[in-house]
Amino acid sequence: MSTTTAPKQHQKGEMKEGKEGEKNIRQTNIIAAKSVADAVRTSLGPRGMDKMIISPNGETIITNDGATILQQLKLQHPCALMMSELSKSQDIEAGDGTTTVTILAGAMLSAANILLNKGVNPSVIARAFHLSSAKSAEILKEASIPIELTDRESLLKAANTSLNSKVVNQSSQTFAPIAVDSVMKVIDINTATNVDLRNIRITKKIGGTIDDTELIDGLVFLQKASHVSGGPTHIENAKIGVCQFCISPPKTNMDGNVVITDYAQMDKVLKEERAYTLKLCRAIQKSGCNVLLIQKSILREGVSDLALHFLAKLKIMVVKDIERDDIEFICKTIEAVPIASIDGFTEDKLGHAENVEEVSIEDEDKIVKITGVKGTAPCVSVLVRGANRLVLDEAERSLHDALCVVRSLVKCKYLCPGGGAMEMELCCKLKQWAETLKGEYGLCVKEYAEAFEIIPYTLAENAGLNPMELVTQLKLAHLNGEKNAGISMRKDNKVQGSVDDMTSLNVVNPLLVFLSAVKLATDTVALILKIDNIVVAR
C-alpha cells in the first residue's frame, strides 16, 4: 500500500515567506491528508473491500477496520499522521466509525480547498466549519431516536449494523447477541452511564468455526487441568486459590552447585524434596482450597509432578501456566487475592465459584471453565473460535467494535438511521441554514454541507451501484421530509440498491458515533487549515 511522504525538507530555521508559500504549504498538507482518506475509502460499508497488510516481520492482517489499516501504514507527512490519529481518536471515543471519520475529514478538506481557491481566508473557513459542526450536532439530536437499555432488540440492531460491514458479517447473528449480553452482564442497566470493557475478556482458540464462539459467565482457560491419573476435573462449590509461587522444590542459584557423592545423600535429598512438597500441599488443603490456579514461572516449573500427585490425592484441581497479565482480571472476577507465598495461603484470600470444570471442545482438546461467579464486580469471558489466526484476529476486532457500539448506546441512549441517511439529512438541513447566513459564512457552510454527500456516494460506489443516481434520489427523499431514507444494499424483487427507510430495515447506528465523527473531523480539518508554515526546529 502506498505511503505518504514528507514535504521537501527545509534548512533548519528556514521559513517560507509570502502568500504563495502559505498557499503551497496548505495545498501540500491537504493533498497529504486526503491521500490517507482515499486509502481507506474503498473499505466503507457492507460491500466495502478488505485490505491485506503484511508487516515487516512477515505477519499478515486481513481487515477493513479503518483504525487498524491506518495504524499499520508507514506515514511520514505530519498531516497524514494527523489523519491516522483522528481515526484512533474516533476508535477511543466511539469504537466505530473509524473509516467514516477519515473519509469525512478528506471531503471537508476538499470543500475547504474549493473555498481557498475562491479567496476565502482560512480563519473564516475554520470558524464557519466549527459553527457548522455545532449546528450539525443539533440536527443529529433532532433526527435521533431515544431508546432504553431494556430494549434488547434495539441494541441488537445497532450491533448487527456494525458487524454487517466486517469480514465476519456472515456470523453477525452469533456475535451481536454476545456483544449485547456481555455488556448487559457487567453493568447496572438502571444507573449505568459508561461501560468498562476491561470487564469483558476475549480469549481466542484456534479450531472450530466462528459460529462456535460463546459467552461464558465467568472465566475460561485455554489450558486443560493439570492432573495425574485420578485427579479431579470437576469441582462444585469451588474455593479458588490464585498462586503466584511455585509448588516445587527450591532450586539453587544459577552459580550454585550441589555435590552428591553417594546413594545415601541422594535418598536424603529426594526425601527432603518429598517432605517439602507434601508440606506445601497440606498447607493449601488446610486453607480449604479445592481449585488452584498457578501463575506461569520463567525460572522453574510452576508445579512439579510430585506436587500434582499429592494435590490429586487431596482432591485439589490444578490449572497451571496462568499468564501474569491475566491475574488481575481473574482475581477481580472471582474476588480472590493473589497469594505470593505459602505463609499467606489463608481462607480469606480464596475466590469462590459454583462450578469449575474441564470440558472437551474437540476430539482431544480441552479447556477449563469457571462459572457461577457471583462477585460485586461482574466480569464475563468470550471464547472466540476460528479456523486460523487471521480469522481469530479479525473476529476479535469485529467483536470489539460491536461491544463499543453497545457501550456508545449506554453512554448516549439514542439511535440514528444508517445507510447514509444522517449524512444526507445533515447536507440538506445545513444547506437550508446556509441560506440564512450572509457573506462568506453562508458560502463556507454550503461547501461544508456538500462534504457529507461523500458517505452515501461511497456506500453506493463500493456496492457497484450507480452513485450519482442513488445520491440524487436520496437527496430528493430528504428534501421531501423522509429523514430516515438511506441507501439499501439488500436485494428486493427488482434491483439491488435502492433508497429505503433505514429504520424499517434495522440499519441503525448510535448517535454518539455520528456526533464524535463530525466533531473530530471538523476539529482536525480546522487544525490543518490554520497551518501556514512548516519550520524545522534547530
CATH topology name of the largest domain: GROEL, domain 1
The top-level CATH class of the largest domain is Mainly Alpha
Mean pLDDT over all positions: 87
Structural class: alpha+beta
Q: Give the number of helices.
A: 16
Strand order of the largest sheet: 6-11-10-7-8-9
| Overall number of strands | 16
Number of domains: 2
Describe it.
The protein has 538 residues and is an alpha+beta fold. It has two domains: 18-146 and 416-529, GROEL, domain 1; 218-372, GroEL, CATH 3.50.7. It contains 16 helices and 16 strands. The strands form five sheets. Strands 6-11-10-7-8-9 form a six-stranded mixed beta sheet. The protein has a three-stranded antiparallel beta sheet with strand order 3-13-16. A three-stranded mixed beta sheet has the order 4-12-5. Helix 8 links the parallel strand 7 (234-243) and strand 8.
List keywords for this structure.
six-stranded mixed β-sheet, 538 residues, three-stranded antiparallel β-sheet, GROEL, domain 1, alpha+beta, GroEL, 2 domains, 46% helix
